[in-house]
Structure formats: C-alpha cells, structure tokens
Design a protein that fits this description.
There is one protein chain. The chain is an alpha/beta fold. The chain has a domain of 73 residues: Rossmann fold (3-Layer(aba) Sandwich). The protein contains five helices and five strands. The chain has a five-stranded parallel sheet with strand order 2-1-3-4-5, sandwiched between helices. Helix 3 links the parallel strand 3 and strand 4. It is globular and about 35 Å long.
C-alpha cells in the first residue's frame, strides 16, 4: 500500500502553523509542522516531504533563504510561500526562483489544499515522495 504524501508547514505564527497542520491532517495527509526554517532543516523531513508550505517572513531564516538552502543541497521539494506582506517584487522573485505558488495571507486552508493537490497531481509517479 502506498504511503500518503507528507506535507510540511514552516511558519513562526503558531495559529497558522497549528491550524494548517490540523487541516491537512483532517484532509488525509501526513503532515509535519515546524516553527522555523532551521527546525525544519535540522529534522529528518527535508528529503521526505512531498510539498512544503513556508512563511516568507520568519526570524532567523526567511522562506526565500529556506528555499535557497534546499535547492543548494539538491532538494527539489515543491514550495508554496505564504506571506502577510505580499509585494509584486517578491511574487516575481519567488516564481522566478521556482517557487510553485506565492500566496498572500490571510489565505484559506481550503485554497492551500487546492494548490497542494494540484502540485501533487503534477509530480511524476516515479518522483513522488511519501
């Protein structure tokens, strides 16, 4: 039996992080959540998640820096960046860097779910992580 995709949420805002964690678990996903990019990078999950949802503005390391670290280590996790301070410049930067979605907060978990499902449907079967 195939394992469920693992969704990782990295956000320093506890209410967003825990809310997304609970929502994605309720939708049937294996989900992990971390309060910082470093906590995520130091975990066992960076190479086993199917999709990463990360905040742009976090203390210590931004979502952009997290993305750069992952790519620098050869990790190609599809990334959704979420931000309470959206700008067209950051949106363009994110999409040019290979981020799959750039989403303004507040965003609904339902909208994030649509994005995650779309991302997972477009990953070739031989490249899926679970």
């Amino acid at each position: 039996m195939a394992k469920k995709p693992v969704i990782a949420i990295v956000d320093d805002d506890e209410s967003v992080r825990e809310g997304a964690l609970d929502y994605f678990k309720a939708m049937g996903f294996d989900t992990v959540a971390y309060p910082s990019a470093l906590d995520f990078l130091n975990s066992s999950h960076p190479h086993s998640v199917s999709c990463l949802i990360a905040d742009v503005q976090m203390p210590g390391m931004t979502g952009f820096e997290l993305r750069d670290r992952l790519v620098g280590s050869g990790n190609t996790i599809p990334i959704i960046l979420i931000t309470a301070y959206p700008t067209e410049e950051d949106r363009s930067r994110a999409l040019a860097a290979g981020v799959v979605r750039y989403v303004a907060k507040p965003c609904s978990f339902k909208d994030l779910l649509v994005s995650v499902r779309s991302i997972l449907e477009n990953i070739p079967a031989n490249e899926r992580k679970s």
